[in-house]
Design goal:
Length: about 375
């Protein structure tokens, strides 16, 4: 039974630490004359509510197997006329209590309807339907606009008490799930990072394979030399790039001497080298405006092949790194084409030089001594 002008408060919470925190806050209120008790479980709370033992109840949302919402519903069905404050803020209970202590929020919420705090038309409509049906509904996701403008994800549970006279009662609980949502997002982020890590590991593996291949190319022993005309080697290289040449509408100009210029070569390897140069030239040129010039010439002691394009050219600061493995300026380039090219030409006793002007074009000149 209630005594004198003491305010008797019950804190219904299965966690004793929470009880102490809430109690401390309440006791800080000046001029208060409080008796504050702890009720640790659902049933003892119901018994006390039935006996009208307290003026005010604070109840935690989580109560072992039951929830504060169920307690609220049962209390209402017992025609409990004492205020019951449900604590739903999982993140920071202290703030909840403080807000209630100040009484500010409650005061400001008076004479307002829930609909005023919901921006989304769809959510308003859904809530209207729930209210029309008069069926208890749990955990509807809605977004509530906070005083400071922040929109918070919340779960709304609604229960109807139809036998309450003279009016029906509707209980609503809004559970702020901002922190839970944030934790979910952090979890998704962590999963994405893990996926990236896997990708990087796979890439590293691929690059390893390519390096091994590249090292293979530098083994001079692997080459099988036979006599081939340079014209034939260049034509086969160009024909490998036919599709790309047609796709980009590139004009190809060939300047070959009439008589075949034969060199000692591993034909398939040299074709790889020249195809790489042709493909780089194609990639440097604009569709519809490309002109590719392939020339073969003979001097007294040297045969020269030149592959010239009118593409975007190479900035001077790139020139010294061009033949290094993994040097690339392309989004999807590996930067291995010229490195491979260099090894192949070198193992044929040849040299490779570059002349280039930005926005004018590039010329790759390969020379073989005869
Ligand atoms: N004809 C060219 N015109 C302009 N830049 C070129 C030309 N040839 C090569 N380059 C520059 O040299 C870089 C290295 O070329 P390389 O062929 O080694 O690698 P990549 O073409 O970038 O990639 P990959 O050949 O492995 O696909 C290129 O990224 C580009 O910046
Ligand atoms: Mg390349």
């Amino acid at each position: 039974m209630l005594k004198g002008n003491q305010t008797r408060i019950a804190i219904i919470d299965d966690d004793e630490d929470d009880y102490f925190i809430i109690k401390d806050y309440i006791q800080e209120i000046e001029d208060g004359n409080f008796v504050i008790d702890w009720l640790s479980d659902y049933q003892s709370a119901i018994d006390k509510i039935k006996a009208k033992a307290y003026h005010l109840y604070f109840v935690d949302y989580r109560l072992g197997n039951e929830t504060g919402l169920e307690l609220l519903q049962e209390a209402a069905s017992m025609q409990c006329d004492r205020p019951i404050v449900l604590l739903t803020g999982k993140g920071n209970k202290a703030i909840d209590i403080k807000a209630m202590q100040e009484g500010a929020t409650d005061g400001e919420l008076l004479h307002h309807g829930l609909f005023e705090f919901i921006n989304e038309e769809k959510q308003k409509e859904m809530l209207h339907q729930v209210l029309e049906k008069e069926e208890n509904t749990n955990d509807i996701e809605i977004e509530i606009q906070h005083q400071d403008g922040e929109v918070k994800p919340c779960l709304l549970s609604v229960s109807f008490q139809k036998d309450f006279h003279p009016h029906h009662l509707i209980h609503g609980i809004i559970h702020d799930i901002t922190n839970i949502k944030r934790a979910e997002e952090a979890n998704i982020q962590a999963q994405k990072l893990a996926a990236n890590e896997r990708l990087i590991r796979i890439l590293a593996h691929e690059i390893n394979k390519i390096i091994t291949e590249l090292l293979d190319l530098t083994k001079p022993l692997e080459l099988k030399f036979e006599k081939f005309p340079l014209q034939e080697i260049l034509d086969e290289s160009l024909s490998l790039a036919t599709d790309r040449i047609n796709l980009q509408h590139i004009k190809v100009q060939k300047n070959y001497p009439d008589s075949p210029l034969e060199i000692e070569a591993d034909k398939s390897k040299l074709i790889i080298a020249f195809t790489n140069l042709v493909i780089n030239a194609i990639e440097a040129m604009e569709t519809g405006r490309g002109e590719l010039d392939v020339s073969i010439s003979a001097l007294s002691n040297v045969y020269t092949v030149s592959i010239r394009d009118n593409g975007k050219g190479i900035p001077e600061e790139y020139l010294s790194k061009l033949f290094e493995p993994f040097f690339t300026s392309k989004k999807n380039g590996m930067g291995l084409g010229l490195a491979a090219c260099y090894s192949i030409i070198e193992s044929h006793g040849g040299t490779i030089q570059v002349e280039s002007r930005v926005n004018k074009g590039s010329n790759f000149i390969v020379s073989f001594s005869r």
